[in-house]
Amino acid sequence: MSDEGKAGWIAVSPWIIGFLIFTAYPFISSLYFSFTKYDVLQPAQWIGLENYDRLLTRDRLFPLALRNTFVYALLYVPLHIITALGVALLLNEARQMKGFFRTAFYLPSITPAVATAYLWIWLLNPNNGLVNNTLRTLHLPAPAWTTDPFWTKPTIVLSSLWTMGAAMIMFLAALQGVPRDLYEAAKLDGSNAAQRFRSVTLPLISGVTFFVATISTIASLNVFTQGYVMFDQDGGPENSALFVVMYLYKRAFASGYFQMGYAAAIAWMLFLVILLVTLVQFWGSKHWVYYESGER
Amino acid sequence: MTNSTSKLFQHGRSRQSRRDLLRKGTAVAGGAVAASIAAPAFLRHAGAASRQTPQVSGELVEWGFGIAETNVLARSRVLAFQEAYPNINLTVVDTWNEQTLLTAAASETVPDLLWLSRAETATWAGRGILMPLTDYIARDSYDTSRFYEAALSEATFEDQIYGIPGAMDVRTLYVNLNHLQAAGVDGKTIDTSNWEQLSELSAQLVQRQGEQVSRWGFDHKMQAGWIWLWGIANGGTFLNEDGTEATFNAEPIVAALDWGVKDYDGQGGFGLYEAFATTWQGDEQFAREQVSMTLYEQWMMSGMIAPVAPDLNFWVLPMRQRGSGASGGMVSFAGGNGWYIPAGAKNPDAAWEYIKFLHSDETWMLGAQAVKEARTAAGAPYIPSLTGSTTADQLQIDQLFEPVGEAFDNAVRMWPDLLSQSSPIPVGSSPVAGQLIDIILNEGVEPALRKSSSPQDALDTANQSAQDAIDSF
Asked: Which residue from B28, B79, B463, B30 is spatially nearest to B257, judged by alpha carbons?
């Protein structure tokens, strides 16, 4: 190996070592443990596919947690994109105080999720929260946001939407990259604002939209913090806010379960689900994502 | 300091150091004046443990027993230990959780002492994490008969004692006498064995406009895990005698849960309860008169009523076996923490000395005295802390407790009798206790309260899951 090559390996070795120890090893270990009965205290005992069999055929809570997670993702991802894009469009048109509004809308993204969750618990308190008090004043129905199983997932979605700052910044950058002359050409052709948005803006920001959709889908399938803080590891009323990662955590670390092998199997099932969903998204992107280079 | 007080620690240390010791204790008590009460009898009878010259030394690491300045009872006793055992270098780690203990056990870095909920004794002992204390107890002829039966049995797993009780909690019914008087009832005479009467009162006491509740009638706390108390009071057991079979769906427990569902229905339903409960702060709902009747641990009086509403017109009643009448058998489930030595501890001898020292009657009284002085300095009444030890509790009541008010006095004097009739949490003897608690709440009680299942169906499901958990351990 040349000196330059050696220097290169030395330069990247801290990352490689870190990756091998803290990512690759746990990743592979968890696959092994998913085929074992393991509580950390006793040596892992190989049980083959027993964990997966139990997970898929006998566990009442795993399908429920998976369904909750999908419902959350289906609610959250589109609303997240719409909200972030909507705010980005407004900021893109803003004439004054652009910097202030940009900062203001981004701020919740860097607020700790725990603090945000607690804030929303109070805002959405069914008995005397600000939201329900306002709804009552307007003689509108006041949902039991945090205690009715029907409303728990919308509640978490609502609190999660607040932190759309990162996506908003990406959309804003994409919007500012749309060539002005395309809008002018469309105007000359007699298009209205909605037509320009649909035919010019959306195709030209579709790359960013795809990126945001993919990342937020993965994040939403891994949802944990908001649900854990608002409803604890038990998943709220009737397990309606029990998400897959919360269930994994509970099986591994809480309530004396210590079922590390089983939790590892849950983690691998979730990994496969996320992989599948992401592959579908990539396949679907061929039909709607436009790249300036001409690739679809 | 009186001569008798100086006899508190007879460890072969100098009189000066004993003075220092007590000074530290009183300093912790918020700078209160030095003890000037007449020398109580207990001070003249130092225990066997405290008469021995300390032989142990080295590092001693304990987890979970915070000694912040605000925790006078703990701090004064630990400082006394440090004073008495200068050769032991004590390291206090305030908090720990299941994950830290698991990783410590896996990496063989367990502490020497664990301050652990006794309900978790079987959970950890069953996994080989804890060391039986039986040999130490036999070696030192350590008297375990002074502990309440409920506390000691909770610290025992498969006939071996793993923990020494170091705190106790007990549950009773708190009633707001003004609210009950407005409903035409003398709260002091409620027959807690008559569940039908309790239900009637619940419905009478709740105050709400439509779906907005301003006062809850009776918080029976089944949703918070107190199904144990109701099940026991109705003759249920939850597990068979050797803990191998779950009996969650036995008739007495189903009937108890059915009653709990109907009781909340009479007040507007569990949904309204839950919505209202989310507005409570600091668990002070009873003291703030947002709840008329509630079950609660004994620390309600010193922790909530005394500081928040010292003039509250309340009364404390024991729960009794259903249908046994107003003077029937008392029922409660009692819990609390204890001291444990993990298997693999590096300095178990020092850990055992620490346990003995902290739980001698003399040390308890030193701590209690410090608490009393702190509370007096703060203008608050002194309410004895429950220790798990019959003798230490009685000493506090007999020699330190001074009448505060009729309601307080009645409750404090009832505790020893109630504790002697209490049971530990019924599933605590199982190594999968944590799972069983989780299962009965989330698969049994909650679906029934929410009406997504009948009590019978919910408890059938819970029982099946519980049995699976027991069988797969």
From this structure: B463
Q: Are residues B114 and B208 in the same domain?
A: no
Tens digit of each residue's pLDDT (9 = 90 or more) over B340-365:
999 999 999 999 999 999 999 999 99
Give me the domains of chain A, ranges plus CATH numbers.
51-285 (1.10.3720.10)
The DSSP code for B141 is T
Q: Where are the alpha helices (DSSP H) in chain A?
A: 3-19, 25-33, 50-53, 61-93, 98-106, 113-123, 130-137, 149-161, 165-176, 180-188, 193-196, 202-204, 206-221, 225-231, 244-253, 260-285
Shared domain check, B462 and B324: yes
Instruction: Look at chain A and count its residues.
Output: 296
Average pLDDT for A204-230 = 94
CA-CA-CA-CA dihedral for B362, B367, B373, B376, to nearest 10 = -120
Residue B268: C-alpha distances to residues A150, A238, A268 (Å):
19, 19, 44
Cα of first residue to Cα of last residue in chain B, in angstroms, is: 56
Using an 8 Å CB-CB cutoff, list chain B residues near A237: 274, 446, 450
B180 and B304 assigned to the same domain:
yes
**Of B105, B212, B441, Cβ closest to residue A127:** B212
Q: What is the pLDDT of residues A71-99, one digit of tens each?
A: 999 999 999 999 999 999 999 988 788 88
Task: Determine the distance in angstroms separating the CA of A126 from the nearest CA of chain B, rounded to an integer.
Answer: 5
C-alpha neighbours within 13 Å on the C-beta side of residue B246: 25
The answer to whether the Cβ–Cβ distance between A256 and B452 falls below 8 Å is no
How many structural domains compose chain B? 2
Q: Assess: ipTM above 0.90.
A: no
Q: Which CATH number fits the domain that encloses residue B93?
A: 3.40.190.10
